[in-house]
Amino acid sequence: MNMKLDKQTISHLANLAKIKLEDGEAEIYSQQLSDIIGHLNNLSEADKFIQQAQLTDQIDGYQFKAASVDLSADEVATWPADETAASLAMTGSQPGQPVTIPPIRG
Length: 106
What we know:
By secondary structure, the chain is mainly alpha-helical. The chain has helices at 7-16, 25-52, 56-59, 81-91.
């Protein structure tokens, strides 16, 4: 199942979250979030395959590793230095180090 979030849905979600989108951002986020949802669907399908193939015993002891992601083409790379520094300060992270975000507790 390939779910595509259109610009109207993105704008609606931004409005619900009280986020102001600049011109063109809905289009960018539409593609990015659609890609994320597609990846999550792929992971779900892989999990279903593992369950159906009864492979869980073979992977229970496996140590999963965090994936390294190249963000050089990401829009964050073009943020002004003061905005980047403020964002890192809010997360307690340092430049060049992974950003960790505390869990949301409801």
